[in-house]
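Q: I'm teaching a short session on how sequence maps to structure, and I want students to see two examples side by side rather than one. Could you give me a first protein with its sequence written out and its structure tokens following it? Keep the formatting plain so it prints cleanly on a handout.
A: Of course. Example one:
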Amino acid sequence: MSLAIAARLARRELRGGLKGFRIFLACLALGVAAIAGVGSVRAAIEAGLRDQGAVLLGGDAEAQFTYRFATEEERAWLDEISTAVSEVTDFRSMAVTGEGESSERALTQVKSVDDAYPLLGEMVLDPPMPLSDALDGAEGLPGAVMAPLLANRLGLAPGDTFRLGDAQFHLSAIIEREPDDAGGGFDFGPRTLMRTSALEGSGLLEPGTLFETEYRVLLPEGTDLDALDAEARELWRDSGIRWRDARNGAPGTARFVERLAAFLVLVGLSGLAVGGVGVSSAVRSYLARKTSVIATLRTLGAERRVIFLTYFLQIGALAALGIVLGLILGAAVPLAFAPMISAALPVPTLFGLHPGPLAEAAIYGVLTALLFTLWPLARTEEVRAATLFRDALGTARALPATRFVLWTIALLALLIGVAMLFSGDARLTLWTAGGILGSLLILVGAAILVLRLARAATPAARGKPALRWALSSIGGPREESVSVVLSLGLGLAVLAAIGQIDGNLRAAISRDLPEIAPSYFFVDIQKDQMDRFLEIVEAEDSVERIESAPMLRGVVTEINGVDATEVAGDHWVIRGDRGITYAAAPPEDTRVVAGEWWPEDYSGPPQVSFAREEADEIGLEIGDEITVNILGRDITATITSFREVDFSTAGIGFVMLFDPNSVSGAPHTFISTVYAHPEDEAQVLRAVGEALPNVTAIGVRDAIDRVSELLEGIAEAVRWGAAATLVTGFLVLIGAAAAGVGARTYEAAILKTVGAARGRILASFALRAGLLGGAAGLVAILAGILGGWAVSTFLMETSYAVIWPSALGIVAGGVLATLLAGLAFAWAPLAARPAQVLRARE
């Protein structure tokens, strides 16, 4: 019965239109739209990867080997299960033009193929020609095609020649589109492609050199991919084969997109929290204007439950409208900008209406609306009719009935749980939730402190009317000041935290790392070349330090006899192949923190020293056994010690270090890092390249630039998410300013009546806005610095320093935003006639 009455009353209240709820709707719609938009783009990428997975992979499935080609038995099995097979090798090398002092060198990611490549998709070249014709070459030289970036860097054009190792190639064309270029993940150098047969005699595919071989296959129609996956793993468990199919055509890209989207959704949730403050403020302001209506209902005998349900249903209907508007906006914007987004992304996209992300955004919107409206609605139950007639809704006690407090806690827990489920990253979600809640608590405390300070400072402002009026208004009984500090402060805090994280990441990459990083990594140094290599490098006066180590690569397959993925999950150490080395004695600067090192003449069962931090993450202990497949051979070693390994220096660092007796007999090469003066690095590269053309040099600064480019893209996406949060905060600010127009109009009328000039009144309004904006900005700096420190220290594990230009810009932004909003709503109160205003209040 009470529900039916409440529904009828709510329907009548809604006849008044959306007046007073425009900011409510805008905040809710914008927050939901941000989450829905990010989710829609993520879903479009995932759909594109699924749809084009086979093209990105280069076939329906792929078998991958490290350091070797498939054996006759393995190749026979691949031929048996497929309708077509293409063999591709992938490695890094140095592309060289010219001779002597005039020579130019650049790192390139080389792909060598057979005549069956590509099985799927099409290689687009400039000038247009079939790939087979391009790879035939000219003038007695084998042909090759090259990425435009590499060709420009070396000053090459079609028809020119260049060298890889000891082999000379004719550049036939420039690559415009490579069908499987998004499936391989992160590359240090631009692409060069030629036939594998053309590399004979180049010295680049010698035993032990760093290369991978991929066998892409086309499968018969109706092949059971799960059964084939199980068969491959069972047949070739001990051969080091890595098998994947088109359902996971670009795993690195998919993983990156998923994690970035999860992070952006959490940034969107921060925006929704800011909007929630606006929603709560709008509900509170609306109920304050409905004092006489609520009083009338109470005097007519309406129960508290009926009044609560009346406004709960009314605001629920408006919240549903806001959520629907947000979903429409979140679905429409990605569709409208689909061509632009697709062109900017290096992966295929399939835009459309994706129900999953929209449902997630709707759930977030419903929970946020409930969380932020329940408390102000509940306060109506605690106010008596007589108090309502005095227009004093604000005198209700701060805390509502216990059941509403419990419901609020339950809704908050549910929202965090849903965010953990949808984001797939519980740790990041909890950090985000903790940061938002901590910021809100700091901001509430700051708002209360600002009010008290304003009240205390008001008497001291005698002789300065504009300042006195501003302080008196801030410290008054209205809640406008709290709303401004909360909404603007939280929006600025999110932006400040992102600014601090972004700045510290940039500092760690572009400033700290180059000071301690080597100039070059030299890889693929053959055993019989090490003496010559050291002789060349040590002869250069600019070389300050050289570090060398034997280098193998292997795949961790088992831990204590159990499949490694069952023990370590998706940990990066077991994802793909890892670098491995060996040593009789602990290398220089090695610190053993647990266990014991083997004797220098050790010849017993295999032993391995593991990196301590990675061992802790996986859950390894001294005495555990780890099985590593190297060149198709399983080696099971006992972990006898843990070492501290600092990967942040960009020097030589290995997770696994074996005793020499275990692995030194396997074909392998050496790796070396060379530290030289920056101005002489080119000379070192030229000297090594001329004497040992098969040796590949990886410039650490080039790698840093590639990582910086990637981080710049991430930072740009996050900044857009933060901007949406700030826009929401500004909307809440506008709502608070609009809600206070009536009070400022009355205040201006009183001041005019006692003789105050308009300029002084305007100065009072400006001071009020500036003080509140400054307070919000200062609190945002504190919250942003704390949030940035927590994320940088505990999640990203980088050093942290306050980025003051970014922090001070936040304060300036807070002051400017409140000034603009305050002054925009100051003209109406100033223009109002005092007689009309005061007569209306009688």
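Q: Perfect. Now a second example for contrast.
A: Example two:
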Amino acid sequence: MCMPCGVLCDPAFNYKAHVAGTKHKRRTNIGTRILKCSVCLKSFPEFQWDQHISSLKHAGTALRKGVSADVRPEEGDLPADMRHCTLCDRIIPRNAWAPHLNGAPHRKMKAFTAFRAAFEDAEKDKNGIEISHGEEGVDFDVIEVPDATFGVLTVVTVKNTVPQSRIKVNEIRLASSLSHIPSPFTVTAQVNTPATLTAGREFRIVVNFKHPNHGKYDDRLEILFEDLSIRQQFAIVRPIRGIIGSKTDYEQLRPKIPYAPRKRTARAPEQEVVPGVPPAATNSTKWVTKLPFADIPKGLIRILYSANEASKVAAEVRVARLPTHLDAESYSRHFRELLWVEEFKMQHDLEHYDMYGVPLTRHEIYYHLDVPGLAENRPSVLIGDRILVQRVGAEKGHWYEGHVHFVRQVSVGLRFHESFRGHLPAHKYNVRFKLNRIPLRRQHEALSSAFNSPHILFPKAGNVLMRTAGPTGTIRPHIYNRLIADNAPQLQAVASICQLPPGSAPFVVFGPPGTGKTVTIVEAILQVLRTNPSARIVACAPSNSAADLIASRLKVLGPVQLFRLYAPSRSKDQVDTSLHDYAYISSETHSFAVPPVAVVKRYRVIVSTCVSASVLHGIGIPRGHFTHVFIDEAGQATEPEAMVSIKMLSDNSTNIVLSGDPKQLGPIIRSGVARELKFETSFIERLMESQEYNERRGYGKTVVKLVKNFRSHPDILSFPNDKFYLKELQPCGDTKITYSYVGWQHLKNSKFPILFHAVAGEDQREASSPSFFNIPEVTLVKKYVQLLKEDRKVRITDNDIGVISPYNAHCRKVRQTLKAVADGVKVGSVEEFQGQERRVIIISTVRSSREFIEYDLRHTLGFVANPRRFNVAVTRAQALLIIVGDPKVLSLDPLWRSFLNFVWNKGGWKGDAPTWDTDEPVGLGGYDKAVVEETIEDMNGFAQRMSTMTLADVMVGLDDEGDEDRPWREVE
């Protein structure tokens, strides 16, 4: 029996599974706070607050009392049946108190607290001994590289202040000496130990900081004493720290406001919202079908509101909501549920961007609102989106809806209802961003379609493998891009696509980095049009940038045959003017629109994003009008996004062609629950996992793998080729570009165009943002950009350089410091660079601190434990790849450790040498537990030396999810 939950034991009762479940966790771990409702005069655990204030019972009580139901939570009183654990800062039911004390989280926190107590006690002067520099320790602050190379000194004094006291100095040492780890610090004492320090006497210890490499370094000075009068041993410790880098950069970039996690409070409900004025462009299209609302079911919301971790919520969703088997009949239900799970998290994450007490600036009929982070799509705001504002001090629950009419670099223009009067420049407003549900509703409409053809969704061997690969001989003489004629895999892909019988299973062009998959798709489209006069094609991509690339390469068709369909939310300023002739611009609204359906039917090729393809169905294009649906970069689309064109526009004769690389990044999924439920698995990846799409068995019938890489130097390609592509990729790039940095004077190995610069940096955060930045790495990135720009042998522009980093805060700091050096260098996340290439790529990995070691293990260091993110990052470079990072942290991951071994053994390493054997085979899977154990051992050893306390298995949990750094996707 589980006493806290009162669950009786029976033969089928699985205690272990019960303890891991949602019900047990809710009963035994209420949360961090008890909140009180001033309307109902009742207290609730924090995780139940949202459910309470949205309940009919709460609304009814407020109505009876004649007060607003929009209330903020107050601190509630701790109920008599609960206790507060001050160590864990959790509220625990009394009948679960004993299990909590014996549980692993409490024991880990207790052990860590013991370590901190031992450390704090050791830092204090005691028994009459006074040591200079105080408990803050020896801080060299920031030392410029030339000074640190020669060495910088400081003096620590030790004094006995007690009359007639005799204190023996047994040992003076650095903590690093016990683990034999190289340290940039050395200590030299005036006395030889052991020695007796009598009353009034003092001696000096010289601490020398000498090191040639950038980074943050720390150690501990440990002085062991013995009071001879009572024969008692004790120790006094002083932390030692120093930074080697740029003082200027530190002054400019260090946190201006100390980091303090933002308290998350539930949004009070909006009781009355005055509708705003939408842009005319959003109402310019005449629809023949209505989009379903597809609101999230309340039963699913109740599960998702659980305070449990993602894996447990996912397990509950799987049991309660998902069909037991995924097939053509259950397909729609399965993916609608996953789409709702993702929408729930998107809505929740938008609350991060709520603003309080901000001004609005009026310009005629528009109100301008400055939105921090808008340039980085944090949040993503499009024309037609809704933003709610409420004047500070106004009636609670009363909001005005502003529709976005234009988007600038750092601001948006809003229009409100005419009743939005009395605005003064001095007024301040609270602001809420509302999720644009139109793209989600389009996907739900597609998933609800009755078209669930098994030969498309779940192709079987009988559908595809009996067919022979299309012969290439008839295609070769007519190839438009002559480079394809000499590339056997590309030629085979084009031939196979052209000769697919109507209603074939989806065909996949598997395109690893730099192999020309978009070139292949464009050629295939042109050849289909040439060989089939009645062909009609819709070509889609997950993003506007990818769709624009397809359209720009198809301009040979001219505006009579080619139409680029843009959503009305797309600003003309965001589109290359050369594509305006291929789009439809309304003469009334002067914005992108959709021409009459009769005009649309005349085009032979229509290019759009995956989601916007539903517009074609919405204006009345009949199913089966298109003979082919092409989806480029299909690995970056969720399965519901891919299904918009397939399920809404196809019939049993339509052929589907997908191109992408399942070894690179999948779609961006914000919800940890959705990721647990495999929502990150794209349609193309799911197909590629089946035997029917085996690269050898299905070659030319269901799939063609492109193998000629036209992007990278052979050494840059070598490692990902080995790890991800079975060593099948062949370097075929233009050697004038790919070899342009061989012999560069700043390479460690002049013939090897990869450089790993090891730096022991410092993780920092500021204000309420949980995103990390690392100033030593920012300095090194700037240094390398300067060296590249100053080089006289290889002339490159800002556009030839890209900087990739997983943390939004770090990207902002890099952009800030590059403004005066190279303002045009693109700095962004791995997701922002997928599908792109640069002559030089600099990767800054950011994470350094061992104190965040469990966070690193759980949250994958940005891209450390995600092989696809690693693959994309290291395959963007054409001629030179520079990585700046902390090898001690990166080596936690086997893939990164293998890569670091590869670079070290090729002679491409700068900075402190690896602390591990680079010739030792790297095990598969998991993290390097030895590194974790080494950290714990250091803490254990210190606690044992400084006190009688023992530390065991110290791990400290930090934030829940790294959503601050997860970019928002643009899908319309």
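Q: What should students look for in example two?
A: Point them to this: The CA atoms of residues 905 and 918 lie 8 Å apart. Also worth mentioning: The mean pLDDT is 87.
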